[in-house]
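Need tokens for this chain, all 311 residues.
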Amino acid sequence: LLQARGIGWYVYQEADNDTNNVLPLFSSFNDTTTDLYRRGNSIIPTPAGQRYGPALAAKLKTDVLGGNLPQVSWILASTPDCEHPSAAPNYGARFVASILDALTADPSVWAKTLLFYTFDENDGFFDHVVPPTPPQGTAGEYLPAQYVATNPSGTLGWSGPVGLSIRVPMIVISPFTRGGFCATQTFDHTSLLLFLEQRFGVEVPNITAWRRQTVGDLTSAINFAGGVDTSVPMLPDAGALAAAADSECGSLPAPVFPASQTVPTQESGSQRPEPSGRVAPANTPEAPVTPLLLAGGAAAALAALASRRTR
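Here are the structure tokens for all 311 residues:
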């Protein structure tokens, strides 16, 4: 859809992308002679003996400094850097720091860039908030019978709604989201696509009417009022955090799980009201910034969007 509208895009990935790129599942992205393959399925080479991560960040930084950052980019972390158990969260911090270092290398690029740091799991088995669920039979929101998997035992697999589900986090990092805010409007992963619709005028036809009515397009998390602070704050040394994780994981004993556990009871209730309000430390200065979406979970990938039209 982006390519058909002349909008530059690219998937930044190394050979280990933690299986987060689904484009190779489509035949049109597997012809190595096409632009679709170059943008969506090509691999950034990793020097022999080097861990994953630095080569990807170096490629991104080169594109930023060379004026070649696409309008829309997906950045896929490797397995060690994706924060999925048993990868250490400190590795994820180091990876994100390298991405931010690349994006801020050119202040003029950073001044018009949004980085969406996305997660695909909640890192647990329970959420006390009941998610919005489409009514039975809602078009496009329930798996048709012919697509329901059959288990080896002969019983049908999941045949219910395809969402919404337990809450997962997303962090929006940019000059337009500073101030320690939390956007409490309901979002899901299609909210990123809805945002692309708003930004580029590209309609995604497979988003259902129910989902469009239920989830936001992320614009409520972004300050469009002006007074944007494009300075880059000093951050802790993420490399030292990763080294500390290596040391502790190699020396500390494994955790002991409670011997007796019970399943918690999920509370009942009606649909959550539309939100909003600020969640921030008392020492956070007041600023005309729209809320920032933030929660908690296990990391999957990154999506960086720049308003520069290149590639």
